[in-house]
Design a protein that fits this description.
globular; 21% strand; 6-stranded mixed sheet; 25 strands; 8-stranded mixed sheet; alpha+beta
Amino acid sequence: MKKIINFRLAVMLAISVCLGVALVKFIYLKETISAVISIILAVLLCFSSFIFNKKANKKVNALISAFLALFFLLGGVINYAKINAYECADLNSGYYKVTARVDSVYSYDYTSRIILSKAYIKGRTEGGLSYKINLSVNGKLSGVEVGSVISFSANLKDKSVVEQGEFNNYDVSNKIKYYATADASAILIVGYKPTIFQRANAFIRDTLREGLSAQSFSVAYAMLTGNDEYIDGSLLENYRSAGVAHVFAVSGLHIGFLATALAFVFARLKLNKKLSLILTAVILIFYSGICSFTASSLRAVVMCITLLLTKIYGEKYDGLSSIGIACIIVLFINPLELFSVGFILSFAVAAGLFLLTNPISRLLIKLPKKFANALSAVISAQLIGVPICLYYFGEASMIAILANLIFIPLASAIFTLLIVCVMIGGIFSIEPVALFVCDYVFIALNFLISVLDYKIFMIGNIAINASVILYYLALLVASGRINLKRIYKVIVVCVLLVGFCLSTTVATVQRNNGSRVYVVGSNTTCASIIYSKNQKVLIVNRAGSIYSVSTLSFVASEAGISEFDYVILTDADGKTDLQVLVSKLSKSFSVKTLVYYGETRVGEQNALRLFFKNVNVVNAKDETLSLGDLTARYINDGRAIEVVMAENKMVFVSNMGESPFVPEITGKADLLVAVDYAEKLHDLHVSSRTVSYLKSNRLEDGQTNRRFCIEIT
């Protein structure tokens, strides 16, 4: 009788590490049920070898069980050590003179965000810091780049592991412990000390910038390094809508291209296999360093080196085991990567390729072999990736299969050509000549991506919940890795898929028929969306010159919103230009009515009537407004708004200013949401359900965006 599954020790060890890492997080969040489930799963896993590895004797299985338990403990201990060290690094706030190296720069219209490392401080205490600083800069910043050493004085504040019930995964994972604000005029550049990886990255960036037009440079730089901060937002959105933006996340695709090119060169140089392996490993690890050692690049490097080792020693390569080894290494380096969407997507898609490509290819046997292999790989990636994208990003591209069939072979040729041209152009200082052909290639590529509106192929507004486990179990059974008779496989797959579809459909219908609040906060966006079956309302704080609707558009797209019945502006000082606000919003949404606080702005209202004839403009002060299914009134001189909907009283504080205040709420609020200066409401216990700090998520643009959804009952 065949075993139900083939026992893979590396995979089981990786799962043990994941459970250990997750357990510590659940303990910190005081999620008792999740913690207990993790322990139960770990115990079952420890005895899995006795069930699925029956060929081995009891002593071997006992040893395997011991290793599984050890790796579970190691995962937990390493994660605990990382989190505990982060907690113990508090400065308890204080004014310091800081000298530090710039690791990242994110520039907006009139503000910037800088990530600093190797900081040395002088103030209440003096010395070097082991953790990074997130510095927000007011004003136009010039001359500061990655590798620059800057000096400034500011009040350094601590970040916490758990902030208002949410695990601060992004900051802890990236060792960003402190945050501060400074004016651009107060920042001095005192040196330039980049790391070797930063120098290599700068070499690539500067070579591309010298040899390519601006738009070609932005895409080429993202393709080589994974840094898409220079790509125009609309162009990047087109790549995402087409389903090919994964070429900007350095992963197996890039590492595979580079490894293939290196193998070709070393073969022509007639180097022996072991030397070729060493050189390839060094170059691939160095390239991962240029790309900031992301989880996806490290995973791909480990898997590639594993493949090369098996070829040299004549062993059979097992893709799933190599994924397990890569997972263990990545999590031992940084355990909190387990909870990042990049890690989840990278490892899930890689596993899906090994599990599903061959079964799907066998179904396409009538097609030409190479085309069938390529098509099956793309379909496998989509089957695995779409539910993840729907859960984390709210939407997924349905044209991605066709787009990737065309784009991946093209990207392979472009990537290899680009590396060669960058090396030649940068070393011999002939960038325009060396990159002449590449420039026109990227111009053509960007044209093809921009010529169609790929958003029409996007699906979204689907409630992905825990039932997605049934979907992935169905794929696992269908892959043939579960040894069952064909008829039983068909029955199990059908039952699992029906269960998933029914659960998802019910959850989606319930969510779309219910009411909820979406809260959006970032460096350039502060807003809340009230969603109900009959109307959609946007509450926004003062929208200055740097106000961006990109994150807002993303969340609205996730919720299936293209039109706002009411836009309510909490702008107590009246500095927001109403015409500019409506103009920005109108690029993504249809706006019916705009409500603002204060006296009538005759000139601005007349301009709005002239240019936006379909937008109704209303000004209000102390009166209660009847807005469809809800009533609203401004409080605290327009700095907050009190909304009553479906017997729920909600207060939105989105323009606190530098001084915290207690909102003048009538009675008791069911929900208090603060977007701007949210941490200042931490000690204001004025509601039964208080949300005063927003969930952190790292999106593709590198910003630390905060967003979450609250169901209204």
